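Case 423 in the screening queue. Each case pairs one protein sequence with one candidate compound; here the compound is zinc ion. For every case the pipeline is the same: read the inputs, emit a complex structure as tokens, and attach any notable structural observations.

Predict complex for case 423.
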Amino acid sequence: MADPDLAGLVECHECGLFLRARTPPPGGKAKCPRCGATLYRNTGRGVDHAIALNITGLVLFAIANIFPFMSFKLEGREQISTLITGVMEFLDQGLWPLAVLVFAVTILIPFGRLVGTLCVLIPVRRGRRPRYLPTLFRIIEVMHPWAMMEVFLLGVLVAYVKLIDLATLELGVALYAFTALIFILAAAESSIEPREIWTALGDQGLRKLPDRHAQDRVLGCHACGLVLDLSGSTQAHAACPRCGAHMHHRKPDSLNRTWALVITAFILYIPANLFPVMTVISFGKGEPDTILSGVKAFIEADMWPLALLVFFASVTVPMVKLWGLVFLLISVQRKSSWRLKDRTFLFRIIESIGRWSMIDIFMISILIALVKLGSIATIEPGIGATSFAGVVVITMIASMMFDPRLMWDAVEKKGDRSARSAA
Ligand SMILES: [Zn+2]
Ligand SMILES: [Zn+2]
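Case 423 output:
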């Protein structure tokens, strides 16, 4: 029923340009000619490949969760931790927001993505299309930035280097499985292109060729990318016929929501830096550490690469994100047409770097899991860590709420006016 002329009309999710899709060569990418965003890839691999990788991933996930992750030996005492030990420690200390967050981003969401992807790919391979598939696939796609296993691994590395001079550390089977799982998941992800899955899940809904001058009547679905011509429809917020998401011309109330979240994050950033993120207690004496004193300790120990890594993740990244969003918000409100392509690029960076700020939180979750030898040495998490995790989560949501297409709308409006005055 789809018009062959219309099949393959796509909207660029970053600048809002509607264009015709051409399939790139295997291994290639289709890029937006206006803003440079990647629209989709031709992975050159089939669904079978992705199914095999995801099943391997499930086996590795089980090993990573059952066996010991790391062990810590000091003065004849040994502390063995598993993947979940850090989460349990946060709970014991009453810091349940941190327990929930670390559990979600390192265990629950990666597991959900593995199982969910298999639940989508297996029916697609068999040519079946149960009703729950589009909703499930939409949820899997939204969860993508919240699976933070690779960031966790970097946190493990920082914790390891911090402890290696103090005690004997042994790496467990689970850590090796966890590392392998990250590579398997990356390979699985690069072997499927969401657009291909969406096409397999149904391309219904394309009605007629959108008139070039009625672009505001044409809507692209945020979730699955389906392009619809709603010029005959009276519904302002129709549900997408393919994936069921609400369709909006632009993300609803984008500027206000982003501002509110950015301001909240700025406020939370103050206690995040003032209060200790953890306290090292050895022989009864406690030494509280803030984010910056942690960086200072690395410098004093001549561990420059780690000092730079932690400083970059915990100080530079949150600041670049927050000030970057402020700059983008103001530029939209002033309807600026200055360097649109560069501003879209800035947004792309802001969106992708945010999750790396979690390194410090993950490092703390490893340290508190390993170092609990009573009066000899114990590390306790501090309230600053909760505030800092709040900053990371809120800035991630803020960049999701911001609609980069608003920046390009300013130019389009100017273009319309000059075209009309020329006519
Ligand atoms: Zn674009
Ligand atoms: Zn949709």
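Case 423 observations:
- The pocket of zinc ion (ligand 2) is lined by residues 221, 223-224, 226, 240, 242-243, 245 (CB under 6 Å).
- The longest helix spans residues 96-125.
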